[in-house]
Amino acid sequence: MNGYLQVFDDVARLNEAVAHQWRLIADAAVRDRGVFHIALAGGSTPRKLYERLVQPDYCDGLPWNLTHVYFGDERCVPQDHADSNYRMASEALLSHVPIPPSQVHAMFDPSLGVKKNGVEKNADNYAALLADQLPASSSGQPMFDLILLGMGDDGHTASLFPGTTILDETNRAVAAQFVRKLDVWRMSLTFPTINAARNVAILVAGEGKAHRMAEIASSETSKSRYPIQRVNPTGRLDWYLDHDAAQYIAREADA
Ligand code: 6PG
Fold it and tell me: What is the three-state SS of the chain?
């Protein structure tokens, strides 16, 4: 298992650690480059982290005026749709902090269309935005200062699901993918861009992820069995787990 693993008694303590890392990385990025580029995770796990960052002890100390927020992936639905990652992040964080609206970069514009051509156009547009806004890595990929990721119980991350062709994308920074298992179109950062990041933080919480985490942490498991195992950035990788998600890893290690 690549990266640094930290296990916390509960999600609140996990979120305190991630918020602290966010602040350290943001301060360093602004000091070194005058700007902080971060890609947010979707799903439900990060909501409480985002809400924590709204509290004055974090909110007031973060460089929102020099922060650009992007998304690691998006469901191809309108921004006010219940499934939208943009909506979740806006409700939990972005509408409560003093980030200039022009520095929040939604991933999906439904006006371009919600079927294959529209979604692929969205992906091309977002990739062009990243190329324009972010510094390039040595491999020519846009380089985020921090990418937040979650993990599904099938080992997916962002919208990089098992058995989908996007897993093998080697050039494009952003791609569209029809996810048959969910019968929906998704957009996602690809592994070349995720792995070009200076920092990646994977947040995993809850009993439902525990068996998959034990498999991923086990040396017996093939390194490419699950999509999330392909997250191997040139920068720093941190796994933040709560006790419930990590509970079988110890048992695996003792075995
Ligand atoms: C998404 C996310 C996805 C998520 C995992 C975990 O758009 O759904 O990017 O990769 O991180 O599915 O989701 P939960 O946090 O809801 O368990």
Answer: CCCEEEEECCHHHHHHHHHHHHHHHHHHHHHHHCCEEEEECCCCCCHHHHHHHCCHHHHCCCCHHHEEEEECEEECCCCCCCCCHHHHHHHHCHHHCCCCHHHECCCCCHHHCCCHHHHHHHHHHHHHHHHHHCCECCCCCECCCEEEECCCCCCCECCECCCCHHHHCCCCCEEEEEECCCCEEEEEECHHHHCCCCEEEEEECCHHHHHHHHHHHCCCCCCCCCHHHHCCCCCEEEEEEEHHHHHHHHHHHHC
Read off the pLDDT band of 251 (50, 70, 90). Answer: low
pLDDT digits over 73-87, tens only?
Answer: 999 999 999 999 999
Which ligand 1 atom minimizes the distance to the CA of 156? 10
Instruction: Specify the ligand 1 atom closest to the Cα of 45.
Output: 15
Nearest protein Cα to ligand 1, atom 12: 152
Distant-in-sequence, close-in-space partners of 181: CB < 8 Å, separation ≥ 6: 161
Cα of 98 from ligand 1 centre, angstroms: 26
CA–CA dist 123, 115 (Å, integer):
12
The 10 Å Cβ neighbour count of residue 55 is 11
- Ligand 1 contacts (CB < 6 A) are 41-45, 72-73, 85, 150-152, 156-159
Atom of ligand 1 nearest to the CA of 160: 10
Q: What is the pTM of this model?
A: 0.97
Nearest CA to ligand 1 atom 7: 42
d(CA 121, CA 109): 10
Ligand 1 centre distance from Cα of residue 33 (Å): 30
